[in-house]
Amino acid sequence: MTGVPGIVAVVGVPGTGKTTVCQILSRIVRHTYINYGELMLQVAGEWNLAENLEDLFNLSLDQQHLIWVEAARRIRRLDYVLMDLHGIDLSPLGYLISLPVDLITPDIIVILESEPQSIFERRLVDSKRRVMESPGSIREHMELLRTSMFVCSAILGSLVSIVENNDPHEAALEILRIIEAAGDATTLP
Question: Is the Cβ–Cβ distance between 89 and 140 less than 8 Å?
């Protein structure tokens, strides 16, 4: 990595506040903000496969995978990207790593975390269809996300940071500091 990190992946379990934090951060960094799920929905729409998230989730896993790959290919063409995605998804079949490591190598992976009870309460009022989790299973999901992202980091050579989201503006500023420090570190002798 030289200079400003090109690809910053902000990952977290659903309901941790990734999108809010990334939207705040996108106003103060040069990176193009991409919500991976929204990009997948856009691709599915262009391919006349889905008009909304419900349609997307009802597609076969093979179709979803093709859409996921196309979204990664589109992101790969960009120079500076702030990528908002779960990193690991819980499906009825089990957990799936959703960071497309075979197509995209993030310079930085930021794991955004919140208290499991707060995430649980946010999900209760969320209109998105999700696999229902308890605060205990959310904690397990968070632990698996951490482990998965550290493994991805070891394979890819990405930096990993964990940021607690108690306040979205503060979390965005903490991620900005990480991006700046990573850029500064690459210019040291």
Answer: no
Query: Would residue 174 count as lying in a domain?
Result: yes
Full residue range of the structural domain in which residue 95 is found: 7-35+80-181
Alpha-carbon distance 10 to 131, whole Å?
21
Closest CA to 111 of 67, 53, 69, 153: 153
Number of folded domains that form the chain: 1
The verdict on residue 113 lying in a domain is yes
What is the signed CA dihedral for 61, 17, 146, 52, rounded to 10 degrees?
A: 0
The pLDDT profile of the chain, 189 residues, written as one tens digit per residue, is 457 889 999 999 999 999 999 999 999 999 999 999 999 999 999 999 999 988 998 899 899 999 999 999 999 999 999 999 999 998 878 898 999 999 999 999 999 999 999 998 888 887 665 566 788 889 999 999 999 999 999 999 999 999 999 999 999 999 999 999 987 654 444
Q: Is residue 120 part of a domain?
A: yes
